[in-house]
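Re-run requested by the PI after the first attempt was lost when the workstation crashed. Everything re-entered from the original request form. Ligand of interest: cytidine-5'-triphosphate.
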Amino acid sequence: MLNVLINVFWFTLPAYVANSIAIDVSGIPVIKNYSTPIDFGKSWRGKRILGDGKTWRGLILGGLAGGLTGMLQSMYGSPWLPQMTASLGIMLGFGALVGDSVASFIKRRMGFGRGHPLVLLDSLDYIFGSYMAVWILVPVNLQYLAVACIISPPMHIIANIVAYMLKLKKKPW
Ligand code: CTP
Ligand code: MG
């Protein structure tokens, strides 16, 4: 049981890192000025395609961070952990952020503005995106996907509280 949790965490780590980096870099002084939206500010049927919360900066830096995470993980090969590589990390990282953008597309079509919380969609979009993308390279274990869907929302909450306690975040959510 614990073994499965650790394996899923290890395999999903590049997606978690990509997702957090895309958000975190938006607070870094020089980097935050590069805020060109992926949809270039364009609308479709009167509403933004994705909105200002989805930037090229987040997509590119987040995706690369996923690849870097996968590369570092590949150096720490262990017989009891799933094999990670830089390419899997890139797919998981970019996939996570594409999934996140698809969710924003859906939110905009539903008429919700940037930042409107839809808890389930917000916490699972990047998991589905990363697993769909990595599927291009390797067969995905559906048990992993199911476990990732279950552990990710509570993990997200715990990570935010820890970041708050470490004074990395101003609010505990
Ligand atoms: N972010 C980014 N580029 C991305 C994803 C995220 O720049 N591809 C940054 C943005 O500053 C964004 C923040 O991370 O505001 C939080 O991400 P998220 O919660 O996904 O976006 P929201 O602002 O809530 O917008 P949406 O309603 O479209 O999800
Ligand atoms: Mg949001």
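Saved to the shared folder this time. The chain has five helices and two strands.
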